[in-house]
């Protein structure tokens, strides 16, 4: 091999996978120099090497709904893309990812991707506690990086800061890093690789307003000798790397401004803009560079959203969630809320969840409205019970000075009865401990007999119609009367007198029938 | 007696062969075979080729009945990515393969049960259709429940 011309060696090396090129540096001194010096990054890309992307994997933490960016810099990974011709899914093989392992120097900082040209990437390292940052140019193939000197001017804040990395079209093909920053006016500085210092460009004429989402502003994709940024809601600004001037640039037509994220990228050699609103991604592609009416909406397949899948699946999946987390589903979206609160869901959840539980009513004293507890029975010796407090605190005002007298459950729904002191009225609650919903049945307009009164209750479901019914036997006058309330009908129906003298309190429900001892 | 083979066609027009006695684990296919003998290609317009390949792998399993439960569980465990599981569950729903659908749905439920609200939306690609005011209202309503 050593007798062969260097060009041939380079050609062979350039066809190696990215992962193994770095080992070539170790083979011999000659190879090391070949890889480091005469190994133009663009030659490597023109070889048969698979297309890769560098992803910056940064752990994100959500706390109370807001994003906390931790001090962990994350890792940079080279990911190979397997793009199939017959359909357009992108696949990546995690095993091929290449950890650039910059962690030691990136400790306690955050990273941002500025841009990439010919396989070189420009990264920006930001020190959250100090008001400055460092810029790296990194060659992931040879795993080399250089740190640019810090900029001369000291800026006041991160307002109006954008970064870009590109290559001028002049014969020398200089790589340049540009950044803007706010002092009294908006200024710009350029660093040309190899020159050793930042050069001021003076005030910038294009307004780059303060952007709340500054993190997205550090990525300025390079195309056609220009770096590009989104500078306000829907404006695109460019920097010409030859003339070193800023300009506004035609942006795609946008009807509504309802984006969660906007970003620019290069796709198949065209500038494109990605608008994200949750998972609705819109890709605009500028077919001919610089011509406004060539912005065009790209159609593509996305991973399925739960919303595109049959509703049965959603219901099935939610119904398998444990009792203590199902409550959160109500907050996911309106559709889920309706699903969970639907009466048919009660039965389904009851049949799908393999949790067995007991509802226990506890109170300290007469004035305490008490609490309802869900006690899960786990079939395990060490932790036979797991409790979930179905806090009835919000019912406290209405439960004050009274107590829950009776409790019956069917299919995971619980029916509760409360009798006021002095038998002035009684209230009936139907409670779903899973969704933590409680409905209060209307009171009956009837006077109770003074003195001794009997109340007998039953709660069950008709296997024929699926209707839940509450049966109440009460003694407003001399005789015991039957009233039935069907859930959803909003009123009690009187079924007349009970022909038997009933003694025991609760009706037991089985096989579509209530049973009382007479 | 030679084993009869059926051909299934995915959404992206790929063809898969499977022996009939294995394919009829799908109630949908069983009914089709009963009705018209299903001599031609059976189209599955909602199932892509990757998912169908998984379904075929599942149908071709050679497990003793007593090990089957464990096998199904392991089968979905190995494909623990939510998008894959959702596609698999949808295919199992369309093809009416109850065990597979149960296992896939159970796995998704297991994965999302400890997620935060935002993570559930991210993982299942569900758009939050509430305004911040509605969001606050529902949080207040269930304050006592958290």
Structural account:
The complex is a heterodimer of chains A (518) and B (146). Chain A is α+β, with helices and mostly antiparallel strands and 518 residues long. Chain A is built from ten helices and 35 strands. In chain A, strands 1, 4, 5 and 6 form a four-stranded antiparallel β-sheet that branches. In chain A, helix 2 packs across helix 3 (29-36), helix 6 packs across helix 9 and helix 7 (323-332) crosses helix 8 (334-341). The longest helix of chain A is centred in the N-terminal third of the chain and has 10 residues, at 18-27. The model of chain A is unreliable at 43-49, 61-67 and 211-216 (pLDDT under 50). Chain B has 146 residues and is mostly helical. In chain B, 56% of the residues lie in helices and 8% in strands. Chain B has helices spanning 20-23, 27-36, 49-59, 68-77, 82-95, 98-112, 117-124, 132-141; strands spanning 5-9, 15-19, 42-43. A three-stranded mixed β-sheet of chain B has the order 2-1-3. In chain B, strand 1 and strand 2 (15-19) form a beta hairpin. In chain B, helix 4 packs across helix 6 (98-112). The longest helix of chain B is centred in the C-terminal third of the chain and has 15 residues, at 98-112. Chain B is elongated. The mean pLDDT of chain B is 83. The chains are: A alpha+beta (518), B mainly alpha (146). Chains A and B meet through helix 6, helix 7 and helix 8 of A and helix 5, helix 6, helix 7 and helix 8 of B.
């Amino acid at each position: 091999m050593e007798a062969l011309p260097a060009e041939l060696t380079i050609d062979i090396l350039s066809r190696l996978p990215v992962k193994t090129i770095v080992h070539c540096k170790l083979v011999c001194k000659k190879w090391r120099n070949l890889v480091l010096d005469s190994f133009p990054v663009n030659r490597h890309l023109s070889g048969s090497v698979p297309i890769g992307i560098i992803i910056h994997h940064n752990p994100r933490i959500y706390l109370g709904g807001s994003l906390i960016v931790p001090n962990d810099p994350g890792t940079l990974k080279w990911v190979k893309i397997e793009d199939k011709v017959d359909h357009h899914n992108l696949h990546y093989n995690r095993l091929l990812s290449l950890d650039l392992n910059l962690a030691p120097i990136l400790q306690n900082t955050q990273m941002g991707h500025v841009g990439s040209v010919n396989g070189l990437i420009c990264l920006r390292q930001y020190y959250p506690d100090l008001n400055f940052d460092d810029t790296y140019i990194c060659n992931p193939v040879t795993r080399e990086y250089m740190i640019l000197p810090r900029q001369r001017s000291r800026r006041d804040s991160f307002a109006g800061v954008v970064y870009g990395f590109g290559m001028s079209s002049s014969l020398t093909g200089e790589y340049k890093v540009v950044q803007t920053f706010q002092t009294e006016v908006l200024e710009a500085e350029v660093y040309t690789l190899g020159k050793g210092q930042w050069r001021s460009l003076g005030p910038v004429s294009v307004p780059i307003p303060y952007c709340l989402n500054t993190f997205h502003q550090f990525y300025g994709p390079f195309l056609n000798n220009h770096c590009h940024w989104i500078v306000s809601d829907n404006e695109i600004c460019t920097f010409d790397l030859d003339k070193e001037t800023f300009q506004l640039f035609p942006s795609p037509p946008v009807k509504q401004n309802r984006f969660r994220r906007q970003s620019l990228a290069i796709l198949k050699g065209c500038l494109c803009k990605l608008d994200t609103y949750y998972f609705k991604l819109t890709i605009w592609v500028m077919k001919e560079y610089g011509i406004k009416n060539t912005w065009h909406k790209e159609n593509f397949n996305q991973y399925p959203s739960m919303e595109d899948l049959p509703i049965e699946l959603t219901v099935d999946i939610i119904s398998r969630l444990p009792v203590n987390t199902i409550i959160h589903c109500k907050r996911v979206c309106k559709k889920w809320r309706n699903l969970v609160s639907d009466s048919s869901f009660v039965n389904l959840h009851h049949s799908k969840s393999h949790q067995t539980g007991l509802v226990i009513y506890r109170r300290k004293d007469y004035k305490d409205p008490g609490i309802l507890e869900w006690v899960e029975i786990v079939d395990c010796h060490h932790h036979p019970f797991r409790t979930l407090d179905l806090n009835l605190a919000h019912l406290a005002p209405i439960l004050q000075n009274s107590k829950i007298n009776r409790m019956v459950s069917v299919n995971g729904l619980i029916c509760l009865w409360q009798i006021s002191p002095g038998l002035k009225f009684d209230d009936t609650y139907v409670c779903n401990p899973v969704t933590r919903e409680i409905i209060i049945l209307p009171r009956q307009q009837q006077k109770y007999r003074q003195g001794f009164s009997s109340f007998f209750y039953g709660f069950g479901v008709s296997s024929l119609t699926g209707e839940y019914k509450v049966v109440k036997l009460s003694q407003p006058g001399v005789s015991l009367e039957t009233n039935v309330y069907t859930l959803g009908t909003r009123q009690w129906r009187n079924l007349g007198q009970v022909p038997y003298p009933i003694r025991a309190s609760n009706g037991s429900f089985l096989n579509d029938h209530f049973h009382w001892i007479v | 007696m030679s084993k009869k083979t059926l051909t299934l066609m995915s959404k992206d027009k790929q063809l898969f062969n499977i022996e009939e006695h294995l394919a009829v684990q799908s109630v949908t296919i069983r009914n089709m075979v009963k009705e018209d003998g299903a001599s031609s290609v059976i189209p599955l317009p909602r199932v892509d080729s990757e998912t169908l390949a998984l379904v075929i792998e599942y149908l071709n399993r050679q497990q003793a009945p007593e090990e089957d439960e464990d096998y199904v569980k392991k089968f979905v465990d190995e494909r623990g990515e939510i998008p894959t599981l959702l596609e698999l569950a949808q295919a199992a729903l369309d093809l009416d393969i109850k065990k597979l659908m149960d296992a896939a749905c159970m796995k998704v439920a297991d994965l999302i049960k400890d997620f935060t609200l935002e993570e559930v939306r991210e993982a299942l690609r569900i758009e939050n259709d509430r305004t911040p005011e509605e969001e606050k209202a529902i949080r207040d309503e269930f304050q006592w429940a958290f």
